[in-house]
Every structure is written in structure tokens, then in C-alpha cells.
Amino acid sequence: MAVDRLKNFLRLGDWRKIGAAGPLALAAASVGIGAVAIFVGASSARSIALPVVSGALAGMLIAGSALTWRMRRTLHDQNMRLDAAISNMNQGLCMFDAQYRLMVWNERYRAMYNIDPLRLRRGVTIRDLLDARIAAGTFPLDAARYETELGDALRHGKTFTVDVELADGRTIAVVSQPMPDGGWVATHEDISERRRAERALERTRSFLDTIIENVPTPIVVKDIPSLRYLLINRAAEECFGIERAGMLGKTAAEVIPAATAAFVEAADRKLIETGQTLVLDEHTVSTPGNGLRIVTATRHLVTGADGNPQYLITLIRDVTARKRNEQKLAHMAHHDPLTELANRAAFNQCIAATLDRAAAAGESFAVLSIDIDGFKTVNDVLGHTTGDALLRAVAQRMAWASEGAFLARTGGDEFALITPTGPQPEGAVALAERLTAALASEIEIDGRSLRVGLTVGVGVFPRDGADAAALVANADAALFRAKSEARGSVRFFEMSTDRQLREKRALEQDLRSAIGRGEIALHYQPQALIDGGITGFETLVRWHHPGRGPVPPSTFIPLAEESGTIMALGEWILRSACREAASWRKPLRIGINLSPVQFQHGDLPRLVHQVLLETGLPASRLELEITEGVLIGDFTRALAILRRLKNLGVRIAMDDFGTGYSSLSYLQAFPFDKIKIDRAFIGNLGHSQQAEAIIRAVIALGRGLGLPVLAEGVETEEQVRFLASEKCEEIQGYLVGRPLPIADYAEAVGRPPAQRALSHAAAS
Ligand code: C2E
Ligand code: MG
Ligand code: MG
Questions:
Q1: Which CATH number fits domain 217-323: 3.30.450.20, 1.10.10.60, 3.30.110.40, 3.40.50.1820?
Q2: Can you tell me the distance from the alpha carbon of 101 to that of 129, in angstroms, rounded to the nearest whole number?
Q3: Closest residue by CA, ligand 1 atom 22
Q4: Is this model's pTM higher than 0.70 or not?
């Protein structure tokens, strides 16, 4: 400013002021001489005065000239310096007078805008200048508007600032500063580099912001020492369950639940004290809006330029989801998904631990094996959804009643309990009573009232088993017996009975795979007319157990019936025997024994029909032997099945007659084709009058009903003679022939010797 004014002053007529100083000095000298003349007398004064005045004037003129020269010189020097300063300014500079005319500018200004030097003259208007710049392509704005806005600002004594972006990419900052005389001085500074740096910085900042914002790790930055939140990225926002606006500028205590806030701040302070990166492994924190989280937090200090800690950065790893998954997996590994009770794996772990504890302390405990009575019916009749709901309800009640004991679901409708260690069997009895009571009332499911009961088997440690496997197996054996003796009962393991039962179950298990392993074979026993002519063969099944040797049908048939294996076994026997008989030359009959179970499940007539078609055996050659057991129970159903079988053209024989109820009504209800008198009566011939009487009566009954009667178990000629005298038509027994592989009866069935080996292999 001072420089501007000075230059202004110098340029606008200061030279005139210096020129006026000479005459002024002369006038002053004349006045001075006049005064001297008055004082010393006029004439003498004149003679004195003239040379004095002349000398004075000459002196003054010389002095004046010297002064003027010196001043000019000074001013010239100053001007030179000023010009040099203005020319060497880094900024473009121009000065305008109150009439908006250009007074001063520097070369930098011209070069900056590449203005035609001819158009840059003292006195051109601002508008001329702008036009010159437009012509040079260095004024990209609206000139009229620029001029107006500039004028408005200057009139109000305000600085007018504008950043002009040139077409070549430069940015020029123009500052127009009003001056008191109404003019203004404008500086033009190329700020392109600064702008670029600023933009680069801005870009870097926004890049970093984007990265930090999008890093999936929660990041929190706090100010030191206030420990107020300065930065919270999106992941942290999500982790805390609160918008960052609610946290920024605040301390932990102001936003996080108190206990966690105290913990967080203590950790922050510890970091500041030690200066060491602080890692806090998995720990639980309460968040403002995302409940409890399990996190790992790493804290770092950031030091400022002065070497003092300035920021505290916390990186958080939210491991809640992983932890929950792990917990869920662990839960799944040890729980039954339907009832949420412990599963068998968990049960095994618990029993092992309890056993160790009890053994170490010399204490006792019990294992309860539980079966839900009536569950199967609900499941079969009302469907699996209701069955599942029932199991859940039962599990819930049992869990409630078995407080203190370990309850697990070990199978479909099987549960198991481990009592706490303590006196037994009292503990087990009390527990079983509580469980039974818990299921005493009806269970409401989907508007239905269902009632189920419990059957319980108990094994007591150490009496009933020293290890977990034995203890559980024996509790199961006790349960098995409880189920066969009385549903709803509680049975303790009994060494003798339960061992037999366990063996039976083991055998039952083996039987399931016996057909597949080729352990089952068929033997055939001839049936003959009383005179010895063979009419057919009865099929008798044989099981050769790999470890136990031959197992009699009286042992394994009931087992097969109990376990349901009889269905597959019966079908196999039927198919094999029919195929065998169909291969015989002689059209002999083939007798096949049927189990009552085969009448209760599946579609027996359809199976028989299918097998006859498959094997090509004429129906008339097939004789199915049934016992009274078939008709006891669902008589109507059995009768209907028998009728359908009969319709196929198959013969039906009543086996073992005289042993069971021997109800005559059965004989009346169905047109049997044969009555077989049980071998027990034949064996008693000659020993028992009653046996004789019964045989006579049955033969007479057969004759009356027009039914042929066959006597089983005929071993002696005496027996034959008696039967012949009574007009019994057919016999079967060791006397006629033992049950043997069909190969032994090849001749009797009319098989050529070449086929023997083949059929033997097929039968075994
Ligand atoms: P069952 O149908 O009354 O068979 C006759 C049983 O008497 C057979 O016993 C046979 O070996 C035996 N036996 C035949 N003649 C004599 C004799 O002169 N003296 C003596 N002491 N016994 C004789 P096994 O083979 O032990 O069969 C017993 C029962 O097992 C059969 O009685 C039958 O109820 C059942 N069974 C056998 N095979 C089958 C089969 O394939 N299916 C079904 N469901 N049950 C079968
Ligand atoms: Mg039989
Ligand atoms: Mg029999």
C-alpha cells in the first residue's frame, strides 16, 4: 500500500512541487533583503544588497539545483527499485484509478494472461483488459458480470476475490483490493500447484476415508487426553449398533453401558501409561445398541509432531458370530434337535464321568432306560408331526421331573437317565415314580388329549455293571423284560433272567442278517398215505448259526416273530420252497408253515399269488399250514385272508391240532383242506388213554366234516397200525422220513441225479 501511494504521488506532479521550490526560495530571499535594507538604510543597503542578493540567489539556485538533482536522483533510485520489485513480483499486479483505468502493471501480469503488449497501455479500461484477455483465451468468465461484481465489491470497500480456472488448467487467484482514492490494486497469483496439491491431498484423504469406512474391521479413534471419539467407521457403527453421530465427540462413559465403559477406559489409560500396543483377547462387551458382543480389541497409540500421544486407535474383531456358531455346533453335537435334550454322545460322556466319580468315592448311582408306552401307536395313527410334538411334550415333562438327574434322548422313543450319586435303588425308585407321575395327566396336542406311559429298566452301579457299557446294556435288558412282562412297570436288572434276555436279543440281531449270509436253509419232510405212498413234503426251516451251530425253529421262529424278521424270512421260505417244488418232476404237494404274524402285516394273498406266478407252481400243489394262533386275535381279518388264499386255489391245513384251544368253531368257520394232529398225541400212543381218545375223536371229526386227517410225528409201526385201524388217511414222521435237504429226496420227487447237486446248493 505504502509503495503504491508513493509511486502514485511521484507520478502525479511531484516534479512540479520541486520546480516551485526555486521561486519560493527567491521570494523568501527578497523579503529577507528588504528587511535588511529597512534596518541599515536604503542607499547603502542597495549597494550592499545587490551583490549579496545576487550571491544569495546564485547560492540558492545552486543549492536548489543540487537539492533538486539529489531529490530526482533519490526518486529515480526509488522508482527503479520499485519497478524492479514490481517486475520481479511472483504475482501479476495491476493498479487502476477511480475511473477503472489501468495505471500500473507488471510483466508477470501480462505474461500470465499472454496479453498482447499493444493492448496493454496506461489508461486502458478494465473492460479493455478483459477483452484483451478474452482475445488471448485467458479469460473464461463472463466479462460484463465480472466487471459488475468487481465494481459492486469495490464500491462497498470490499476486497473482491475470485479464483479463475484457465482453459490450460492453471488456476489464478485474483484479489482486488480497493484503495482510498477510488482505484484498486489487483494481484494475480498462479495457485495451480497449490490447488493440485490440495486436490491430491483431498483425494488421498477421501481414499483413506473410503478405505477406513469400508474396512470390515471396526475401527475407533479417540482423542488423547480427552478420550472422546474422533472416528468411528461403518463396521464399528454396526458393531456398536448405534449411528456414529451419537458417539462422536463423546466419551465411552457417555454412550456405552457403565461396566463396559469403565473397562474400556481402564484399557485406554493402561495403553497411554505403558505406550505399548495392548491386545485384549476374546472378552464380552455390552454395546449401546447391539447387545452383548464377544470381541478381541487391539489398541495402538499415535504420537503427534511434538512426540506426545495424540490419538488412540482401537481395532476390534467381533467374533460373536463365530463364537455363537461354535457354541451352536457344540450344542448340536451333544443335543437332540427335536427335544433339545442331551443326545447319546452326551449321555455316554456323562455316564463315563459319573462312573469315575462314583468309583473314586465308593458311591452308587443308577442308569434308567426308558421306553414311552403308546408312542408308536400315536406316531402310526396320527402321523409324525403329532408324534414329534408328543415327544417334545414328554421330554419337557420328564426334564422337569428328573431334576438333578441327567436326562438324554437315546433313540426314537427311548430316553435314558443317570441319577446323581447316592444310595440305590432308593434314588432310582424315587426318580422313576416322579417320572411316571409327570406323565400321569393327559398331554394336549393339536386339540387332542393324548396319554402315554413309561416302562423303565434300571441298572445300578456297581452291582449291575462295573463299566458304562455293561451298566447300560443291563439297564436295557431290564427294560426289555419290563416291556415283555408289563408295560408301565419298573424293573431292576436281574442277573439270570436278563442275561438270557440279552442272549436272546443278540440272537435276534444275528437272525436279521442270517438270510443274507446264507445261514438259512430248507429241509423237507415227506408226508405219505397210510400205505406209504408219498403225497408231498413239508418245508421246515433250518438255521445254522456260525457260532452256535444249528438253532432249532422253536427258538428262532418266535424270535423272528417278535422282531418282525419273520416277514422277510417267511417270504424267502415261501419263494424258495415253491421254486423247489416247481422244479420237481412229480406233481407232489409242498407244505409251508405260516406264522400268525404274516397274517397281521403285509398282503399275504398277494405275495402268494406273486410267488406262484413267479415260480410257475400250480396253486393246487401248495398247502399252507396255519395254527390256531392265526385265528386268535383278529379273527375276521384272518378269515378274509384265508378266503382270498383259498380263492387262489391254494390248500389250507390246520397244523398242530389238539394243542391249543382246538376250537371246533374254527373248523366250522373255514373250509380247511386238512387237519394235522399234533405229534404230541401220536408220541403218547400206547402211554396215554387220553391221547388215544383224542386221536380217535379228531379222526372221527375229520371224517364227519369231510376233512382228511394227517398224523404228525409217526415214528413206529405200532403207531401206523393204530392210525390205520382208526382210518387215518395220512401220516408224517421219522418213520416215513426225517426232515432233510431235498437232495436226499431226489428220487422221491423224480429229479434226475444230475440236478441233485444243483438243487442242494440252491437250498443251502
Ligand atoms: P410243525 O409245523 O408242526 O413241524 C413239524 C415238526 O415236527 C418239525 O419240527 C419236525 O422236525 C418235527 N417232526 C417231524 N416228524 C417227527 C417225528 O417223527 N418225531 C419228532 N419228535 N418230531 C418230528 P421242527 O422242524 O423243529 O419245527 C418245529 C416247528 O417250527 C414247526 O412245527 C413249525 O411250527 C415251526 N416251523 C418250522 N419250519 C417253519 C417254517 O418254515 N415257517 C414257520 N412259520 N414255522 C416253521
Ligand atoms: Mg407244520
Ligand atoms: Mg405240526
A1: 3.30.450.20
A2: 9
A3: 713
A4: no
